[in-house]
Amino acid sequence: MPSVATKAAPKKTAAKPASKPAAAPKPAKKPVATLSLSSKNYSSWSLRGWLLAKFAGLEFEEVMVPPDDADARKELLLLAPSIRVPCLEHDGAKVWNTLAIAQYLNEIKPDAGLMPDDRIARAHCRSVSGEMNSGFSNLRSSLPMNLKAHHPGYKIWAGAQPDIDRIIEIWTECLATYGGPYLFGKQRTMADAMFAPVCTRFLTYDVKLPKSCILYCQTIMAMPEMQEWVAAARAEPDDIEELDMDF
Q1: Is residue 102 within a helix (H) or strand (E), and if so which, with residue range?
Q2: Residue 214 phi/psi, 5° resolution?
Q3: Continuous segment of H or E residues that includes residue 101
Q4: Most CB atoms within 10 A, among 26, 51, 77, 80?
């Protein structure tokens, strides 16, 4: 019986999947925290709180207190019984003291390095940060923070010199012990945020410092966060006459 040739069945081509509609853009993620701040030019406490939040990597929205706010003005002029700016609000918590803000951020962001890993270094960091938080009143009153100003050859008031000497002692000991470039080594900690406004004061009033402390000030001022803060401070239109010294 002769063989019959059969035609091969045509191959079925797979249907192309329907193209998916483009995904709608996700709404911008809202910060989980707010940080109330006073003047960026004059408020050393605001700078400390802001740097702490930046160091911790916390997303936050700035809430600026108007310069004519009576309570904020009292704080800047050292006339307030307590300092309530900056104030961090996060996940139901409200924290308004810079040292408390540092402790709180260390709790919620334990991997951010706000405190050293070593137990002894951590105790040292807490101690010098607490000293800055509660002391040096003569330095605050005689050398107010003013990022727009520069007073070369400024004559230091005798009452402020012991505060300057103590800060130099703290910095020198920390830098020698932990190797710099920050106070507790290569990682920025809460101590660097606490002393950053002092760096600006020393530059504003041309305070004479040993070389290690000069290099430390340069390191702090070169941080991108500090450059961002200083630029915003210089852009502030309002001045507080009582803090703008004339020489």
Answers
A1: helix 98-108
A2: -60, -45
A3: helix 98-108
A4: 51
State which amino acid sits at residue 72.
A
**Tally of CB atoms within 10 A around 111:** 7
Residues 196, 217 contacting (CB under 8 angstroms) = no
Using a 10 angstrom Cβ sphere, with 0-12 exposed, 13-18 middle and 19 or more buried, the burial of residue 64 is middle
- Residue 199 CB neighbour total at 10 angstroms: 23
Task: Give the pLDDT band (50/70/90) at residue 38.
Answer: confident
Confidence grade of residue 238 (pLDDT, cut at 50, 70, 90): low
pTM (two decimals): 0.82
CA dihedral 172, 175, 181, 182 (to 10 degrees): -90
User: In the structure encoding, which two tokens stand for residue 37, read together?
Assistant: 């701040």
Instruction: Give CA–CA dist 73/90, Å, rounded.
Output: 25
Residue 223 half-sphere exposure toward CB, CA atoms < 13 A: 22
Distance in angstroms (rounded) separating the CA atoms of residues 127 and 125:
5
Measured CA to CA, the distance from residue 143 to residue 204 in angstroms comes to 9
Cα of first residue to Cα of last residue in the chain, in angstroms, is 122
Q: What is the mean pLDDT of the chain?
A: 86
How many other CB atoms are there within 10 angstroms of residue 20's CB atom? Answer: 6
3-state secondary structure of 243: helix
The CA radius of gyration of the chain, in Å to the nearest whole number, is: 27
Tokens linked to 159: 């009452």
Around Cβ 101, how many Cβ atoms within 10 Å? 25
